[in-house]
Amino acid sequence: MCAVGKADMAARGVSVVGVASPDNPACIHGPTVVFERFLQDGSTRKFYACAACRDRKDCAFFLWADQRLSSAKRRLWADLSAAAWTKMTHTQRFHKLKAVRAAAAGERMYCQTCCVLLLRSERAAHSSCSLSSPLTDSHLSHPSTFLPPKENVKVEAQYLFAQRSVEVLVGLAGRGGASGVLCVGAPRIHEAVTSTPSLGLASILMDIDDRFCSFFPPECFLHYNMFNHHFLGGREARTTYTTFLARHQKLVLVSDPPFGGRMELLAHTLRTIEADWRTAASLDPDTTLPVFLVFPYFLEPQVVASLPSLAMMDYQVDYDNHPIYSKGPKGMKHGSAVRVFTNQPLHTLPLPEEEGYRWCEPCQRWVHHANAHCEICRACTSKDGRTYKHCSECGRCVKPAWVHCGTCGGCRPPDHLCAPPLGCYTCGDMDHKHLNCPKRKRSASSSRKSKKRKKRDGKESALPSSLAEERHRDLDILAHLIDGK
Ligand code: SAH
Ligand code: ZN
Ligand code: ZN
Ligand code: ZN
Ligand code: ZN
């Protein structure tokens, strides 16, 4: 990660240090990650926390890095892991699918409470559960169409592609003549590929949502944590993964991770998968694994800082259940904010004209029709989907409503609160941002918060300046950027 990114994170209080090494203590989601907390007095303290859950509510693991995990606690976490995932093995669940598939649609049921398939004759055991029925063949091959999405933004953040976007993404993935696709947190891509044999693509879904065990066989679905490259399905799942990699010298990876996830961790995982693939498929050490990574346009700097080989495409990815990122009454006025990042040459990746995309000859890539080519910048400069305008003072194109501010020397949203471009606007010093300013007066609410925090810290029961708080701050900043007015 670049120095600027690190400094920026430091200013926000918590930063990731290193990746989830297998030697780190493990929670039920596999090896934890070391984070570093920047304390008020300028010192830092490291701690281990869950790689998958960005809120302590969802996974309670916490350990200061300078303390040892007691053997009692280690045993407790091992027991918790065993209890969390081994109610029914993947193979058992898949056998159930075979039995259920043999029955008529009206006899097939899925218990949303216990997360199991069952036959109508077995429903007495689920009398107080929430049951789905009938289940058609299409439901069984496309479980994301009836499983309620896990929308917890701090864990799964399950937002499902609209059908049009599934088609575009499958088309992009299939273009380079791939024979296999790894769908990492992309169940709808996996569903589309596995139910369309004419594509000639084999697919494996790697996802943390183990409900898919009931619908895909162990050789097609791997219960997996993408932030520490940990196979929750154990050694067998890892072998399945390696065998798949070995079989496909032409492989492509499609991923739509939670947007709140740490890009450094994901980047490390993608590099690890690429290295695993080169070894398993006996490829040259410089062979590139084609990647299609779905992420919002306003996080482009973070994506490119961690994965410099990726470039952002102009395609606006649509979702069925995302209030902000999709079109529609509650959605963004100017289309979805989500894009596809890829390491494939952009001129080889056509976008659908019927959805409003055009070929830009000077840029040699497909862009949205509203993305006008600027002769001065020599590029199609829009990021958010609207037509940008060129500012001669800034020497670049900016969002349409932005105005050039002489005080801070840049184009800003019309209602921006003018601040010096660098340093702290509380005391004027250049070596810190105002959040870390020693002279900053604490507001009543923030000191209340910090008292609460101290109390929790005392009990060692919550993250100090939890990741959750930091995420909230991130999202506030992001929301402002999206609005961009
Ligand atoms: N748009 C995609 C779904 C993206 S939502 C589609 O329609 O196919 C994010 C997906 O990543 C979810 O399926 C979620 O279960 C999965 N996920 C979230 N955190 C994960 C993690 N730590 N490891 C692996 N998968 C994860
Ligand atoms: Zn039940
Ligand atoms: Zn152009
Ligand atoms: Zn321009
Ligand atoms: Zn300007």
Could you outline the blueprint of secondary structure elements for this entry?
Layout (H helix, E strand, L loop, with lengths): L2 H10 L1 E4 L8 E2 L2 E2 L1 E6 L5 E6 L12 E3 L6 H15 L4 H12 L6 E4 L4 E4 L11 E2 L4 H5 L21 H12 L5 E5 L2 H8 L7 E6 L13 E5 L4 E2 L2 H14 L3 E5 L7 H18 L10 E6 L3 H7 L4 E2 L25 E5 L14 E4 L4 E4 L4 E2 L4 E2 L8 E3 L4 E3 L4 E3 L4 E3 L31 H15 L8 H17 L2
Parallel strand pairs: 10-11, 10-14, 11-12, 14-15
Antiparallel strand pairs: 1-4, 2-3, 4-5, 5-6, 7-8, 7-9, 12-13, 15-17, 16-17, 18-19, 20-21, 22-23, 24-25
Helix pairs in contact: 5-6, 7-8
Structure, described:
By secondary structure, this protein is α+β, with helices and mostly antiparallel strands. Among the domains are: 6-85, no CATH class; 90-141, no CATH class; 163-369, Rossmann fold (3-Layer(aba) Sandwich). The protein has helices at 3-12, 71-85, 90-101, 137-141, 163-174, 187-194, 234-247, 263-280, 300-306, 444-458, 467-483; strands at residues 14-17, 26-27, 30-31, 33-38, 44-49, 62-64, 108-111, 116-119, 131-132, 180-184, 202-207, 221-225, 230-231, 251-255, 291-296, 311-312, 338-342, 357-360, 365-368, 373-374, 379-380, 389-391, 396-398, 403-405, 410-412. Strands 13-12-11-10-14-15-17-16 form an 8-stranded mixed sheet, sandwiched between helices. The protein has a 4-stranded antiparallel sheet with strand order 1-4-5-6. A 3-stranded antiparallel sheet has the order 8-7-9. α5 (163-174) packs across α6 and α7 (234-247) packs across α8. It binds S-adenosyl-L-homocysteine and zinc ion (4 copies). One zinc ion (ZN) is lined by residues 374, 376-377, 381, 390, 396-397.
